[in-house]
Design brief:
The complex is a heterodimer of chains A (435) and B (605). With 435 residues, chain A is mainly alpha-helical. Chain A is built from 20 helices and no strands. Chain A is 69% helix and 0% strand. The chains are: A mainly alpha (435), B alpha/beta (605). Chain A: InterPro entries: PIG-U.
Amino acid sequence: MAAPLTLLLLVAVTVRAALYRSSLADLISERVEVVSPLTAWKRVVEGLALLDLGVSPYSGDVFHETPLIIYLFHFLVDYAEITFMLADVITAVALYLSVKDYNKQVFRKQKYALEADRYPLDCLELIRSPKEMQYIPLKVAMFYLLNPFTILSCVAKSTCGLNNAVIALFVLSTIKGNVLLSAIFLSLATYQSIYPLTLCAAALLYLLQRQYIPVNLRRFSFWWFVAQYAFMYLGSLFVIVGLSFFLLGSWDFLPSVYGFILSVPDLTPNIGLFWYFFAEMFEHFRLFFLCVFQINVFFYTVPLSIKLKEHPVFLIFMQLAVISIFKSYPTVGDIALYMAFLPVWSHLHRFLRNIFLVSCVLLACSALFPVLWHLWIYAGSANSNFYYAITLLFNVAQILLVSDYFYAFLRREHHLSHGLYLKRKDGSEATLVLK
Amino acid sequence: MGLLSDPNRRRALISLLTRLNAPICVVCYMAGVAWFMGLAFEPFTLRTYMSENAMGSTMVEERFPAGERALGTGREFSAHKKKAGGMPVDWLVKTMQSRGLEVFTQRFSRRLPFPDEDKERYMVKGTNVYGILRAPRAPRTEALVLSAPCSPGDDNNQAVGVLLGLAQYFRNQVFWAKDIIFLVNEHDLIGMQAWLEGYHHTNTTGMDWSPLQGRGGSIQAALSLELSSDVVTSLDLVLEGLNGQLPNLDLANLFYAFCQKIGVLCTTQGKLQRNDWDSVSGYSHAVQTMMLMVMKQASGRPWGDHGLFLRYHIEAATIKGINSFRQYKTDATTIGRLLEGMYRKLNNLLERLHQSYFFYLMPSLSHFVSIGYYMPAFGLLALILLLRVSFQPRLLTTYLLTDGVPGVLSVLTPLVISHLTGVALYTLPIHFQEIAVEHFPVSETEAVVLTAIAVYTAGLALPHNTHRLLTGRGTENGWKVLKLVAVLYLAVLLGCTALINFSLGFILALTLVPVAAFVTPDVPKALSAFIMVILSPACTLLFSVFLFQELQEMPVSFLDGWMLYLSVISQGILDHALYGSLVYPLVALLVYPCWLLFWNILFWK
């Protein structure tokens, strides 16, 4: 399997390198769909210039990346293109390895369940075979590397690629069962953009499951493990933040990075839901709606964790999707990360209902973004409502996509425990309805 | 959400759609066309009204007196133009200076990609002369432009005369709050392009021009004047700009309001408006006017010197003086008064014109159809594509699972090949003109056009043969997937086009949607191939040329029409190279390959 992966990596790197050399690179790096005020490379360069002049990079209102990123690029600024390509490669490889490992576990679990005769007899067609699972890791890597969204994001040198790499490494270390590394990468991801904090629940559930510790609030072993993980997570977060303080010599970055993410002062249009709403709103409602909007990302963690406590990896996928939909400055790079997981759930396709419609809508929206942007900004004949309408449609489509997968996943689990051909009490064929 | 989640209702809906697919499609198509034709019916349209308050209620009194003197200046200009054999730069500079303007010149030169036979030019060198009247009343942050072209021959001398007359008159008024720039541009749009690029410090088309020495504020609005006779019978308003962009409707309203006030006959598309909308002839007159506007907008070329302003967010229109055989004539003084009134109202603007519509069609100067009314016509046509897609949603996944890599290849190959053909159509004509001129007895322009037609025709033969060679036999599902991809592609393409340029999107949808809906490998080959060729983009253009002539009441014979067709193609390529019009690349790189996909499906083996 190494040869196809290597080939894939080569193709991906070639495409990116070619695009870096073309005139498109400048155009792409200006697109609001691809870069946000947080991740724009232009702003990183500005921050670097300020740093070189001995001024705090956060003194203006331009730079909002974390101190570690700016010190990383302090050394790597000449190799920026290679760094971003490398970040994509790392993400892809990490996802490849973690999905491979995850599939092995899924298969093992399925074997045990089969041996214990836990599946109803008519569910045999739902059982997954090693043959169909063989190419899934490769498909995951392909979905990430050759996704136009990822390519755009990488060519625009959006630092989103680096965040994705950190999250992918977190997924890998979690699935491999390495508690310390998982905590460290999670704290790095949190440090980068706060929102990955919600992945904490999924990671805990997975690690508990792996160590055969039951999720039982009355058991000491459960609390002991949670405390251990929390200690490692908070400890490494503390170290990273402290390191940033010592590198920079001031706490400037806290309001400038995290305040910026949470209070959303920059209303540059993007593919998210925040900008239009907050541009239109009366000032004295702002705090209230800020809380309402931000709580979206964190709120779904609780019900999803309860519902999916047996399936933490699916929970990770759901959380990543929720983050990329509801975060304050989303870019297409965030979407690419959770889309990379779609092949993992390819066995659900018989239960998906709207996937065709939704993918058509996503496709059409992606084409309409630049068109409506042109009409609004350059031609001056349309206005922000046109662009926001497409943003809204795009996000609705994403939500439908995710909830479709969620439904399909739950339905498959339901069939696995109750049989595929459900009968009503009177013997007629039953249908499952989501209400 | 019930529809999306309740499986029973979904099944019922899907079965309904599959069973009645063909009739629904036909009904949609008819409804789309009927809706479009209904747009010109007066009770369905809105009356134009002034939305901008700054231009609405304020009183303006027009007092421009010096029409005769302006015509005299025009004659003087004509004499100097003849003597100089082009733009009489020195005379213009002197005259403008004597009228109290700050005068500057700009030189520009441009080599066309191939000779323009319509306007007989290849190496273009020229000079723009412009004078700025500085605003006495306000900081000079905003400006208005009045331009007149310096045309070869005896055209538009009167326009320059009126422009200079107005400059002299405006200079003595104290109420100007915006700079007024009087521009005489040489070589019509090329000069205008050079001047605008110089004014905004951009260079999008690689033209050579000297930088502007004097600038005014940011330009709010511009009018371009074309006047070739001492008296006119009516004034015609031209709105269509580059890529089908239109100025804010308030500019048209302003023109219409002043024509009513002063009592000048005004037209749009050269058609007077009629009051008998309830009679058949009145309705067909309105349809003609609207269709002319649609045709002009769809062509994507600027139909007057104003067309390039729109790209810079400047609302602009061209006012054309027309002298026909009518009793009632309007003299230059009245035209001057009309322009004075319009500029004084524009002078009152507090912000850019944005209150009124940007997307509209005009069946007459006093009525308009806004985007909310005309989009459903396109929507009904696009709905057919969506209905055709909906017939087998599971196709894609099952196909990818069963046919695997060779299956994907057999769909990917036609996609790639047809796009390569599109790239060839886009690049070859200009690059191969020299070789073609060497080997065939044709001029450069003919070479370009004929190469384009040759590549286009060759594309019909090429793709379906090669794809069979590459991947062997296509499967039954193969063409279905290809059709699915092609229909989706067409839907997105037409949707985006219709948003930017409704007319172009609608005309393309009229011809391409039926093709997309009916074509399968099972239909009779020869007949379908004939129908497809008839409905292909090139033939659409040919029909449009004839229809346009017919609508203008200047029908042409087939041979003349064919010559016109050739010149339209060369003009389209030139417009792209000179001003960045997007129609040619759109058709060559996207629409034509998309059509080729359907052609491919027809010959799927």
